[in-house]
Write a structure and sequence with these properties.
The complex is a heterodimer of chains A (202) and B (542). With 202 residues, chain A is α/β, with parallel strands linked by helices. Chain A has helices spanning 14-26, 37-41, 63-72, 88-96, 109-141, 145-155, 160-167, 171-185, 190-201; strands at 7-10, 31-34, 51-55, 78-83, 101-104.
């Protein structure tokens, strides 16, 4: 599901960027490099939940501003910041802005990899949850209006008989609809159906 | 001085102090007896009260009774007491009490260890003594009139005689006693040459003045009297209050001896004493002014030294952080490459080419780190300024030549324009470093331009006293955030830079007595300018 997930490396120092990309690839983490925050924002991928390894010091828009910008756009980036030695206030600001972790230069590459892996895992989870939610959404879309209203009443705990009298249809028709709903939403038992309905309608 | 007083105040010492005081008082009373009034013995030059005041001021007011004892003893030895026992005792009592009050009034002025040195303190000193002695003279005169020793008709003359005699004596001697430790310290600090010259000038001008006044001028002695100001002014201007007080006393003693020897009548003597009082007052105030100035100079020098020390410490701290900051980038890169190599050698051992490439990158990055260390070492060793003649234009061309690769890679054109002859006396290495910083900044800024011609222009122009260098680029200019901290260490917008270039550049310019600033122009790009003085005198050789 997260086959296309990559680590986006935003670092303006050419040599440092090259080294980071090589390190990530050597650890089997797919990675893509950008020289500036603007360059990264031009990538269509940036709107999705991403794994970000970003230098806090960048020309023009810095790492902190990039993080804030992504959060304000509703993205939930899993970010690891690289800060200069002694840039503790900046590191704190980065964490407050929602960054997952930070490493200070000169950093231990193994520790950096651990941090990035964790961020990558979180980005992958976020993306997986997003995909699952999207699939659920698609299934609900297939319900007819009548099926949807029956499901809503089921979620309120009404037995079939009550639903039938409320909707002025026969109990048999309600049972029929229920079977269709279960089939469409992929629920094997009634309790499973109720759980899906509760998740949907709170 | 306070330490001396503390020592003297020791319990076992007070008898010695007392004996010494009385002995000195009596001897001084005998030798200073000039133009003494018949019977009551008031003299026209009376320094012993200065000893009394000095005793009370340095050893404490508890010695006040000694004043009376010493005065009575002096009177007894001079034979005055046998003739007029009660009047002598009464006037001695009034005098002792009066000077005790004067000492109390003077205490705030000399309580501090460095007391009596400002113009304010000297002015108050003179006012208190003049008024105090006048009050004592009036009281003693009144007592003597009441006891029928002095007829009422002689009251004014008696008071005047007493006042002039005591006042000249105190103004002459007391400042010397109060500032003696300082005078000694100042004297020891002087070179033998200064001592010989200044004492020589003083002695010679004093002798000349006295010769003119008493040898050439008579009968118009008073017209030339103010020649006596010159020796005092000389010492006062050169050495301030403490040694000036010595000069005043020397002059006063010489004058009194001479006037006494030449047998002038008492009326002339009083005139001489009043004039010499004026000289003393003028000398003390002048001395105080000079002392204040000397103190201000010393203080200023101390502050400057302190400032320099703080600046050096700050710079050292800044350089320390700069090393950490600048070195951590290549170190992090090195570690990253090395770690990647380890992983690659186990996961993709067949890919020899990638491994070799990465190892080459490690090598070049390590060399770059070495260059940074080298560059910082150059900066750190810039303490040894080596001044020599150099041409700025030539230096700018040399620097532009050294940066030609950097400029070419970035597509930036560096142009040097010199309007006149540009030779100055400066440290060539430092000035070249300064030009490297400014021109490299310009190249890096101009390189950020995406369209049009990228250029850096260096203009060198000369005025009467200084050479001005303008370095302009057509890059994006300085952002307001950076502007505020432009010349502070670490105010950088660059990744590969320690933000030290401009702060060190400014240090270099300032150590040459010049200025470096950011020129605000409406045109696009950054514009830095610095001025260096052409004449050698402004150069601060460290």
């Amino acid at each position: 599901m997260s086959d296309d997930l990559v680590v986006h490396v935003v670092e303006d120092d050419l040599v440092m960027r090259d080294a980071l990309l090589l390190l990530l690839r050597s650890a089997s983490l797919p990675a893509r490099g950008y020289a500036s925050a603007e360059e990264f924002l031009a990538d269509p991928d940036c709107g999705r939940s991403v794994c970000l390894l970003v230098d806090v010091r960048l020309p023009r828009m810095d790492g902190l501003a990039l993080q804030k910008h992504l959060v304000s756009r509703g993205a939930d980036p899993a970010t690891v910041m690289i800060t200069g030695h002694g840039d503790i206030p900046l590191a704190v600001a980065a964490l407050k802005a929602g960054a997952m972790d930070f490493v200070t230069k000169p950093f231990d590459p193994a520790a950096l990899l651990d941090s990035v892996r964790e961020a990558w895992q979180r980005a992958a989870n976020t993306r997986q949850r997003a995909v699952a939610a999207a699939e659920n959404d698609a299934r609900f879309q297939t319900l007819t209006p009548r099926e949807a209203s029956i499901l809503a009443l089921l979620a309120q705990g009404r037995p079939s008989k009550i639903i039938a009298s409320e909707l002025e249809i026969s109990v048999r028709t309600v049972e029929h609809h229920r079977a269709r709903i279960m089939e469409k939403l992929g629920a094997r038992t009634l309790s499973q159906l109720i759980r899906i309905a509760l998740e949907r309608f709170g | 001085m306070s330490q001396l007083a503390a020592n003297l105040r020791g319990k076992s010492n007070w008898v010695i102090i007392l004996c010494a005081y009385i002995t000195v008082y009596v001897i001084l009373d005998r030798i200073s007896s000039v133009q003494a009034l018949p019977d009551i013995g008031f003299t026209l030059w009376n320094p012993p009260p200065a000893i009394s005041l000095a005793l009370l001021l340095t050893c404490g007011l508890l010695f006040a009774p000694a004043l009376f004892v010493a005065a009575v003893l002096a009177d007894a030895l001079s034979g005055a007491v046998s003739a007029w026992l009660w009047p002598a005792l009464a006037s001695d009592a009034v005098v002792a009490a009066g000077y005790t009050v004067v000492a109390v009034a003077l205490r705030p002025l000399v309580r501090r260890a460095a007391g009596l040195q400002s113009v304010r303190e000297v002015s108050w000193f003179l006012v208190i003594i003049s008024v105090g002695v006048l009050a004592i003279a009036g009281s003693v005169g009144a007592a003597l009139v009441l006891m029928n020793v002095v007829p009422m008709s002689r009251f004014t003359a008696t008071v005047r005689h007493f006042w002039v005699g005591d006042l000249t004596g105190i103004v002459g001697l007391l400042p010397v006693l109060l500032t003696a430790p300082r005078a000694w310290k100042r004297w020891r600090e002087l070179s033998t040459r200064t001592r010989v010259v200044d004492v020589g000038v003083f002695a010679l001008s004093l002798a000349s003045a006295l010769w003119i006044i008493f040898g050439v001028a008579p009968p118009q002695e008073f017209q030339f009297f103010y020649l006596l100001l010159l020796p005092v002014i000389w010492i006062g201007v050169r050495h301030g209050l403490s040694l000036c007080a010595m000069a005043i006393l020397t002059e006063q003693v010489t004058l009194v001896a001479l006037v006494n020897q030449l047998d002038y009548p008492a009326s002339d003597f009083i005139a001489f004493q009043i004039l010499s009082l004026a000289v003393a007052v003028a000398g003390l105030v002048l001395g105080a002014v000079v002392t204040e100035r000397l103190h201000a100079e010393v203080k200023l020098r101390q502050q400057q030294a302190e400032l320099g020390r703080v600046t050096r410490i700050t710079t050292a701290g800044a350089l320390g952080s700069a090393i950490v900051h600048e070195i951590s980038q290549p170190l992090a890169t090195l570690a990253t490459y090395a770690h990647a190599c380890q992983r690659l050698s186990s996961t993709a051992p067949q890919d020899k080419r990638l491994l070799t490439e990465t190892l080459a990158k490690i090598e070049s990055e390590a060399l770059r780190a070495g260059e940074i260390v080298e560059r910082l070492r150059d900066f750190l060793s810039k303490g040894d300024t080596l001044l020599g003649p150099m041409a700025l234009e030539e230096a700018a061309r040399r620097v532009a030549g050294a940066l030609v690769d950097e400029a070419r890679v970035n597509g930036v054109e560096v142009r040097i324009e010199a309007q006149s002859e540009t030779s100055i006396v400066a440290d060539r290495v430092q000035v070249e470093q300064l030009l490297v910083n400014l021109i490299r900044n310009g190249i890096e800024a101009a390189a950020e331009r995406t369209t049009g011609e990228k250029r850096v222009r260096v203009r060198i122009s000369r005025s009467d006293s200084e050479i001005r260098v303008d370095v302009e680029d057509n890059g994006p200019g300085v952002t307001p955030e950076i502007m505020e901290r432009l010349f502070e260490p670490f105010a950088t917008s660059k990744t590969r830079g320690m933000g030290l270039g401009l702060s060190l550049s400014r240090q270099i310019v300032e150590s040459h007595g010049g200025r470096l600033w950011y020129e605000r122009t409406s045109a696009m790009g950054a514009h830095f300018a610095f001025c260096l003085p052409c004449n050698r005198t402004n150069v601060d050789v460290r």
